[in-house]
Amino acid sequence: MAKGLWMVMLSLVLPVMAQAAPPSPVAPAPSSEVSAERVMQHYAAQQDEVSPQRKISLRSKHEVLFWMGAALLLFLLLSAFFGVGTGVLGKDWFIPHMICAGITVTLGIAHAVTAFVWFYPY
């Protein structure tokens, strides 16, 4: 029964769809070169503008890298302290040593990437 209902609905819809007006052919616009040129000028003008992310002053960049380096040095010293305490003194500081070492590596990578991105072309 359901198959017959679908056949009836399809037979009602297909003639309506067949009578729909065919799409009219689109002629190329005579000013397509001009509009493309305008678009390129718009993008070129945007490239000249400095984005807000790049408006960070040189002093602020140096401060960010300084504080990242200070935290990196602190965690490096803590990692060495916990490592020596674990190895030489026999303290149970392996977990804090590994946490500090992980933070040190993460900060080192972040510090290097940030310095490279901000100061590579000098």
Description:
- The chain has 122 residues and is mainly alpha-helical.
- It contains 4 helices and no strands.
- The protein starts with a helix and ends with a helix.
Q: Number of DSSP helices?
A: 4
Q: Which range does the strand content fall in? A: under 5%
- What best-fitting shape do the alpha-carbon axes yield? elongated
Class by helix and strand content?
mainly alpha
The overall strand count is 0
Order of helices and strands: HHHH
Q: What is the straight-line distance between the termini?
A: 78 Å
**Sheet with the most strands, sense and barrel status:** none
Q: Average pLDDT value?
A: 80
C-alpha Rg, in Å?
Answer: 33 Å
User: Are there runs of 5+ residues with pLDDT below 50, and where?
Assistant: none
Please give the share of residues in helix.
over 70%
Brief description of this entry?
This protein has 122 residues and is an all-alpha fold. It has helices at residues 2-18, 32-48, 58-87, 94-119.
